[in-house]
Amino acid sequence: MILATKSSTPIIGQLATVMGWIMDGIYRLLNIFGIQNIGLCIIIFSILIYALMTPLQIKQQKFSKLSAIMQPELQKIQKKYKGKNNDTAAMQKMQEETQAVYQKYGVSPTGSCVQLAIQFPILMALYQVIYKIPAYVGSVRDILASAVTSITGVNGYTDILQQFITDNKMTRVQLIMDGSNATSNSVTDFLYALSPSQWKTLAETSQFAGFTDTLNSTAKEISHVQNFFGLNIADQPLTYIKAAFVGGSVLLAIVAILIPILAWATQTLSIKLMPQAAQQSGDSQQDAMMNSKTMNMVMPLMSAVFCFTFPVGLGIYWVASAAVRSVQQVVINKKMDKIQIEDLISENMKKMEKKREKAGLPPQKITNQAHQSAKNINKIEKGSSNTNVETRAKKVEEAYKDAANAKPGSITAKANLVKAFDERNKKK
């Protein structure tokens, strides 16, 4: 169902309105050069929004990279306190040791959640704009305005339109009522969803004979705007495929089939370029990985299936957004490959110290205490063959040793002085 009525969901609704202004701005900019095409606007719009989200993606993957290193330590803590869920003291100790690991690497346990919480409403708002073009893109709504005014001025227009929807099996459109009449927004939705042939049929409706020219001129203009390689972006790919079996254009059917295929291909590529989670031990972790792999296979297939029955415009968005994410991921992967774990930890520690300094808290309480607690957690049992864990632990130890060369007068240097003072007192 297409609804011109804007989303009333808090945050998402406001973000969608802002994105609608951006989309409308893109349309107006292209119009200056004589280009009036919503399909092209959707592609440019997707590129722009995902490009602006790149910093969030980088932060998310920095956390993921550190998370992969932290995982063996966190698993060791979980194993240590396994079966003690009802022991309050043990659970408190487990939380303290877990927190110590996060502090050791200078990250927050909610770091990943925060990034997702920021991205989620943006993506939902983006979807709202693409799915409800007339609601958010004023230039498109203006094209339909004259026809909407003419139709709503006819007595009994609601029943006429409802009968038209039934006769033409327009299952994606539903008239929203305001009392006994359909709202102008739902009439806008109705008109936007019409195919060129349905526009012709509507203009031939006897009750609308007084403004046939208005309907025909509106149909010509909106069809031009909605045209994308011969397809009407408000139509379903399945419509063109069915038409090909009864004498319709085979070429258009082929183009229509490409939409679901490209949606599947681009999303599959995007998923494959994403960094894979480090393999973990245990049946539950292996089951989680298997479920993740299954979802990675199923989701692109579901998108392809949905593309057959959803508007072409939505399919264009799925293809464009997945293609942009793929390019984005290649760039991010190259950047992440150049970043050393030690540098990430150092960067996180500096940020943490600045936050604590602003809050009036001494930074050494985090760096020293976390280092000591995590050091106890990370002791490798004798005879262990887990060389990867040993290597990771060694790298982290070296990162902390580098703090000894801190610049005189810096927060880190002061923290080292406090640590040395504590150690001297312990020896007495």
Tell me briefly what this model is.
The protein is 73% helix and 2% strand.
The gyration radius over C-alpha positions equals 29 Å
Taken in chain order, the helices and strands follow as HHHHHHHHEEHHHEEHHHHHHHH
Major sheet description: 2 strands, antiparallel
Overall geometry: elongated
Q: How do the strands of the widest beta sheet line up side by side?
A: 1-2
**What's the total number of strands?**
4
Please count the helical segments: 19
Q: Level of helix content?
A: over 70%
The termini sit apart by: 77 Å
Measured by DSSP, the beta-strand proportion falls in under 5%
Runs in which pLDDT lies below 50 for 5 or more consecutive residues are: 364-375, 377-387
Mean pLDDT: 79
The assigned structural class equals mainly alpha
Describe the structure.
The chain has 428 residues and is mainly α. It has helices spanning 12-32, 38-52, 54-80, 88-104, 111-131, 133-136, 138-152, 157-167, 184-192, 196-203, 212-226, 237-244, 250-273, 283-309, 312-337, 341-358, 364-377, 387-401, 411-427, and strands at 177-178, 181-182, 227-228, 231-232. It has a two-stranded antiparallel sheet.
Give the topology:
Elements: H1 12-32, H2 38-52, H3 54-80, H4 88-104, H5 111-131, H6 133-136, H7 138-152, H8 157-167, E1 177-178, E2 181-182, H9 184-192, H10 196-203, H11 212-226, E3 227-228, E4 231-232, H12 237-244, H13 250-273, H14 283-309, H15 312-337, H16 341-358, H17 364-377, H18 387-401, H19 411-427
Antiparallel strand pairs: 1-2, 3-4
Which key terms come to mind for this protein?
elongated, 73% helix, 428 residues, mainly alpha
